[in-house]
Amino acid sequence: MTTPADAFDQHGFDIRLGWGIDGLKALRPAAAAVVVVDVLSFSTCVDVATARGATVLPYYGPAEAVEGYARRYAAVAAGRRGGTGIPWSISPSSLTSIPPNTRLVLPSPNGSRLSTEAAGAGIVTVGCLRNASSVGGALRDGPFPIAVIAAGERWGHAEGALRPAVEDLIGAGAIVAALGLPSCSPEARAAQAVFEAARPSLGEHLRNSASGRELIEQGFEADVEIASQDDRSDTVPVLLDGAFVDRRRR
Question: How far is CA 124 from CA 34, 39, 243, in A?
Answer without folding.
Answer: 5, 16, 10
